User: Fold this.
Amino acid sequence: MGDFLVVGECVADIVRADGREDVPHPGGSPANVAYGLARLGRGTVLLTQLGGDPAGALIGAHLRSAGVELLGDLGADAVTPTAVVTLDGQGQASYAFDVRWTLRTAGPLPGGIRHVHLGSIGAVTEPGAATVREVVARLRTTATVSYDPNVRPALLGSHGEAVARVEACVALSDLVKASDEDLAWLCPGEPPREVAERWLTLGPAAVVVTFGGAGSTAYTAAGELHGAPVRAEVADTVGAGDSFMAAALDALAGLDLLGAAARPRLAALDQASLAAVLHRAATAAALTVSRPGANPPDLAELRAALRRAGRQPCPAPAESSENSSHW
Assistant:
């Protein structure tokens, strides 16, 4: 059993790009976050839906190889979601989904969970989203909660209803991470700063907005802090945001800022510690985009990258050395 419970979908990503065969890869934002946490040495449980088909077997083996424990709807009665991922000439990914999210009652949950992470399709798509809300209701008195909307417009239906569902998840969370593209779809025409500041009034201690190659910005009650980008040669961007999320949670755990008892300390997080969290997360994302697929670093790789930059790898990450493009 682990300190982290991640709740959400696994997806078999079928990657299409010029010169490549169609090859299925393990994916799904929550699954990627769980895998990233386990690769960083964190005990992690994933509550998910995974069929007894070849795609389900592939994803299950992938997650277990990092030490992720699987719970939920597993086997012949479940359906493994799929997505066709098309990469353009710059490695940017677009998605076409075949997803049915029907996660049933969570049943007994492991003890000792200090943090729950929600994400993407599973947090807002019924009927499975009702199970996600049930889990958060059961654990929020003892665990902190994070959320990444990771917006997939084709699966969200009515815009107004989608925004309401996303903001309901924001209100349940202590930490929210969203990309600038997420915010542009959810709140068109509204500057990211205004969205983040409005979301802070719903309850989170921090809202972090990522801007791809331009870095990230964290918004808290004390103000905002920009996280400088870390340079990398980009193979593709698949899984970059999920790697950022996993490394940010890993950093907060290292600072003993997760768990319900830590909420006051998380809300009072100082600027130096927040900068360290953003740098560690950006370094992990840079390692991920430097190679194909959602392949986040393990702890040794992340520490080595931070050492090469000339700073202490734990708890505070460092400025990256320069290569070519930013993440």
Observations:
- The chain has eleven helices and 15 strands.
